[in-house]
Design goal:
Helix content is about 35%, strand content about 15%. The protein has a six-stranded mixed sheet, covered by helices on one side. The radius of gyration is 17 Å and the shape is globular.
Length: about 180
């Protein structure tokens, strides 16, 4: 990703999909949030959308929008990432931009499967299905959509009470972990 001053910021995937281990890839260990004034964005690559803690950490660090490039080979793989991305948008009150690679990249990679989407929390401020914009399945295209940040911030105020319960659960987990180490 390019920052406004032309510098490059990158994210090294923290959780590789089991099949990727055969590609001799390695995992990163940082989850950063980047400021694109006035927004803050996070990046969760493909399988990372399926790990709730990734989006939670990005949200706690202030992300308003999480971008999720992905590359899935099957319809089931696409929907798994897509459904998880939408769940993360709802759980963390963020917009989630899912950007799958589609088409025929050539050997040794199989064809990519998917469709781009901009996802919102499923609350009264947005369409009932929580889809701000969506592409046609398996077509090379791009999408645009308008995200209302003021509406997101207002909605967060309404639902923060349930989300604050997550902090309590995290605290309990940390306490339990410290007890098991001793």
């Amino acid at each position: 990703m390019f920052d406004k001053d032309g510098s490059v910021v990158e994210h090294k995937k923290t959780h590789i999909f089991p099949a990727e281990a055969n590609w001799h890839t390695s995992e990163g260990d940082d989850l950063e949030v980047y400021s694109l004034d006035p927004l803050k964005i996070g990046i969760a690559v493909c399988y990372e959308a399926e790990i709730p803690e990734i989006s939670r950490i990005l949200s706690v660090k202030g992300a308003d929008i999480i971008f999720c490039p992905s590359y899935t080979f099957t319809e089931a793989g696409f929907w798994r990432v897509r459904h998880c991305a939408h769940a993360r948008a709802i759980e963390n009150q963020v917009y989630f931009v899912h950007c799958p690679t589609v088409g025929e990249p050539g050997a040794p990679l199989p064809n990519g499967y998917g469709r781009a989407s901009i996802l919102s929390p499923c609350d009264s401020a947005w369409p009932a299905n929580g889809i701000v914009a969506e592409a046609v399945m398996n077509e090379h295209t791009f999408i645009t959509g308008t995200v209302d940040m003021d509406e997101l911030y207002e909605n967060r105020k309404k639902v923060r009470q349930p989300l604050s319960r997550i902090a309590i659960a995290e605290k309990i987990c940390m306490q339990n972990m410290s007890h098991t180490k001793g």
